[in-house]
Amino acid sequence: MLVVLARIDxxxxxxxxxxxxxxxxxxxxxxxxxxxxxxxxxxxxxxxxPGIFISTGLGGxxxxxxxxCVFLYRNPGTLLExxxxxxxxxxxxxxxxxxxxxxxxxxxxxYCTLHLxxxxxxxxxxxxxxxxxxxxxxxxxxxxxxxxTNVKKLSEEEIKSILQKKK
Length: 167
What we know:
This protein is an alpha+beta fold. The protein has helices at 2-6, 11-21, 28-47, 81-95, 124-136, 156-166; strands at 60-61, 64-73, 101-107, 111-119, 142-149. Strands 1, 2, 3, 4 and 5 form a five-stranded antiparallel sheet that branches.
């Protein structure tokens, strides 16, 4: 119902959503999102220019979006310590020109996961492809395929399910 209400270009509807967003109810989080959508609609109508609303399940910080990324190993198993270090070094170098941030990196059997912050205008595909190419100069141990999302952090089961479907 909040999604439907948020699409109505009416200040009284906006105020109703606003009051719901200030209550301590189970719908509060949804009301906040609906309020943002309603605000964008009203602003766009009043200013006669379309607004932009970016929604991401992982959030962001200081004009950057948070991404969850999975690098896949070329061979099944775990990587060696020096390969861990290569990935860390190369992703840090790739992030630097964009003032991006590597928040976390975890190594598993068959893949590693990264939590990153990137500016909205960063070309993720080319950045990650270049990073993988640089890593592979030291032993060709990463696949060129990868998983990138800003919707949510994938669980080990979800990652393994995606990998099974690819096979």
